[in-house]
Amino acid sequence: MDLPDCKLPRLREIADLVTSVRFSRARKAKLTLALRHKGYIPKLLQLFRVCELAENTEGLHLLFDIVRKILYLDKNILFEVMFSDECILDVVGCLEYDPCLAEPRRHRESFTKRAKLPEVIPTRDPELREKINEAFRAQYIRAIIMPNPSDFEEGCLSTLNSFISSRKEEILRELQEDEEFLPETFTRLTNEATDGEQRCELHLEIFEFLDNFYDRYIHVLTAPLPADASEEWHDIDNYQTAEILASVLELLSFCVERHKYHMKRYIINKDLLRRILVLLKSKHKFLALCALRFLRRIIGLKDELYNRYITLGNLFEPVVNAMLDNRNRSNLLNSALLELFEFIRMEGIQLLIAHIVENFSDALESLQYIPTFQGLKTKYEPEKDQPNQKPNSVSSKLPGETFVKGAISLRVDEDQFSEGEEKAAPMPPASSNGSYPPYTAQTTVETAPKRGLFEIFGYPDDEDRETSPKKRARLDS
């Protein structure tokens, strides 16, 4: 393909040529080869410097259009030139002069500041620094030119996206193999001499690690947990297993507080809390305490999405069972359980208060001598009759359909409940020895539509191929 001479009077012709190849794969390939092998791009960037010095607005607008459309050819052999040390700053400069804007953007100023990222990340490997440079430049350019999706065909910039993804994977893999990287990173983060911008860049880098961790490795950490609530826990409840699980729960509890978004997404998508609360039945009280502490960390966040997940999944059932099992004992587990209910009462977490009172008040009747449980009822009473304020109503709170349809054996007026809601049956009376049977249920649980629980709550699901976690039934006689 013949290209117009790279001169100012021919800029309009060049812009028309670059635009004309948009819908022809063969012409795109020919134009790519011509631009690469004739050294054309550096000549265009030389014209940019001339136009900028002369304040040639028309020429700058044409160069914006030309450079942007060359980037949209989405070819690695052109990226190699445009992202090189010699060209990158002028490429960014061309993209400042969008004819749709009244004033030029200041991309180069921002780019120059952000380009110090490789100096912030503590690595001495020159090849790794170059990969970090390349990934940063590609991401910066993509952020500038990423189109309105309706304006371009699906899959545009796929080569650029693949280039960025592969570079990031290489960078993370090499940094993970560097034993000094994380200690040096945290040392810089805690050093008062580290300025705000550098601290921000370090945080961004750690965030990249978290993405990688939650995408690839957290399932390894959670693998020792019971697979589901029906697993025969007593068969594996030995001291060695309990120690391992206690360590796992300590790490996961840390993640709940420090990695709020990532951990919330993982817990809800994988129904992780249900698996952890099985451990309340462990004969090793230190492990049961770790499981309860994990729940306490979640509730301590006072996050509405977590609270909906807990109530919709009826996840207080094992907690109430543990409370009943320990009610006549004076131990750390009993104290920790009481503190959990007291926290909910004191903080006025209405969704949880309503859930506990509506579903477990009969079972907890034997504990009414404890002020906390009477206090929960007192907190609940003013709210229950408020119009359109049913904290435990699934249909009034959650978009979309619920993820189970419960068929409870207790006869109730179906019109009283929204799809997916269930009502707890009264607890059976105490036996002659004063003990209560544990909560059980007779519920038919249907397989959910292929939607993750996170999607039901208004978040996109990152694993659409999986079915939603099953909701365990509430109590029934």
**Low-confidence parts:** 148-152, 389-477
Shape descriptor reads elongated
CATH architecture of the largest domain: Alpha Horseshoe
Return the average pLDDT rounded to an integer: 76
CATH class of the largest domain: Mainly Alpha
CATH topology description of the largest domain? Leucine-rich Repeat Variant
Radius of gyration: 30 Å
Spatial order of the strands forming the largest sheet: 1-2
SS elements, strand count: 2
What proportion of the residues form beta strands (DSSP E)? under 5%
Number of domains: 2
- What is the count of DSSP helices, taking H or I runs of 4+ residues? 24
Tell me roughly what share of residues is in helical segments: 55-70%
**Secondary-structure content class:** mainly alpha
* Biggest sheet record: 2 strands, antiparallel
State the order of secondary-structure elements, H for helix, E for strand.
HHHHHHHHHHHHHHHHHHHHHHHEEH
**Termini distance?**
81 Å
Please provide a written account of the structure.
The chain is mostly helical. The protein has 2 domains: 8-182, no CATH class; 217-456, Alpha Horseshoe (Leucine-rich Repeat Variant), CATH 1.25.10. 57% of the residues lie in helices and 1% in strands. It has helices spanning 11-20, 25-37, 40-53, 57-71, 76-82, 88-94, 107-114, 117-120, 126-145, 158-177, 181-190, 196-216, 218-222, 239-258, 260-270, 272-277, 285-300, 304-312, 317-325, 332-347, 350-360, 371-384, 394-397, 453-456, and strands at 407-408, 443-444. A two-stranded antiparallel sheet has the order 1-2. Helix 3 runs antiparallel to helix 4, helix 3 (40-53) crosses helix 6 and helix 6 runs antiparallel to helix 7. It is elongated. The N and C termini lie far apart (81 Å).
